[in-house]
Amino acid sequence: MSHNTNTSIKSAPIAESGPWAAAGEHPNAVTNR
C-alpha cells in the first residue's frame, strides 16, 4: 500500500503535493501536522 501511495505522490506535481512529497513523507503525516 505504501508503494502505491508513494507512486501517486511522485506522479502528482510537486507544487500541488507540497515539499513533503519531495522529502518522501506520507500525506497522512502532513495531515497530522
UniProtKB/TrEMBL annotation:
Residue ranges of region Disordered?
1-33
Locations of Polar residues compositional bias?
A: 1-10
What name is this protein filed under? Answer: Uncharacterized protein
Q: What is the lineage of its organism?
A: Eukaryota, Metazoa, Spiralia, Gnathifera, Rotifera
